[in-house]
Amino acid sequence: MQPISNYFNRQGALLSTAGPVILLLGMVIIFTFINPRFLSWINLFNLMRQSSILLVVATGMSFVILMGAIDLSVGAIVTLVGVSAAVLVTQGGLNAFSVAASALAIGALCGALNALLVLKLRLPSFVATLGTMTILGGISTWISGGVTVFFRNPDLTWIASGSIIGRVPNSGVLALIIFALASFVGTRSQFGRSLSAIGGGGVTARLSGIDVLRTKAFAFVVSGLLCGTAGLLLVSRTSTGTAHMGDDLLLQAIAAVVMGGTALSGGSGGVHRTLTGVLVIAVFQNGLTIAGIHPYVQIMVTGMIVILSVTITLDRSRLAFIK
Q1: Per residue in 132-146, pLDDT tens?
Q2: How far is CA 144 from CA 139, 243, 300, in A?
Q3: How far, in Å, are 191, 215, 248, 284 from residue 275 at the CA level?
Q4: Quick one: which of 252, 244, 243, 237 has its CA closest to 286?
Q5: Are the CB atoms for 216 and 67 separated by under 8 Å?
């Protein structure tokens, strides 16, 4: 197995940069050949609408993975925000602005909870966020009563499904704006450089004068805030809140981040590369749907994409041992 490991260590940079782009172009060509409707304007707008929520979640996940941590609660936060928003409309009678503000606050608080568990209780991020994922999932089921919560609020629906620019859905515009801002922060700000330094080595970053605890806390809060935004977009688009509405986003977000070239071990890559990974996942799922492939097969292949992406991007030289 050592020659294979050495090969990926030598070729990892090239594969993680060019590989996703080549794969994306190849999928577009193949799916267009299978069904010419793949490149129709209707399907492209639908693709933007479908990928916008994943892009927002994966953008927040990128900050966390870049510093060498993981947030397994992203799907549960999206679910909690979606269910809470639906209940606030149906039972609380709140307007769209109040629901949106509440959604962002809930997401940020969930991120702050993760930061507290990881930084104050010194729990591994995997364990801490696995616990919050379970807790938030239980709260979502309790709030919804285990049933789907339907609502009708045109103002709230407009947030995701309305259109400010032509026929481009608002969810797509908002997702691209969030991604652009996050990419600028990740590449041009002290915060972004600090995350990369922490992912490369926490002790070295601390000796360099970086406030490691504050930087990590802010990354978890940003991830929670963006998950709150994604939950708001999802519930606005569907006008329903269910106890499992965000379950698929965890695996997809991890796949998008590592496919984009951010190493799961942290320290390399960046938020600006996540868009490519999101497009790979979105085009893949959309193309298979148009081709009539069963959704269960899509889930299986997404899991294989995660394994392949981690195999390519993982920096094995930084691992003391592999179990």
Answers
A1: 999 999 999 999 988
A2: 9, 7, 29
A3: 20, 23, 18, 14
A4: 252
A5: yes
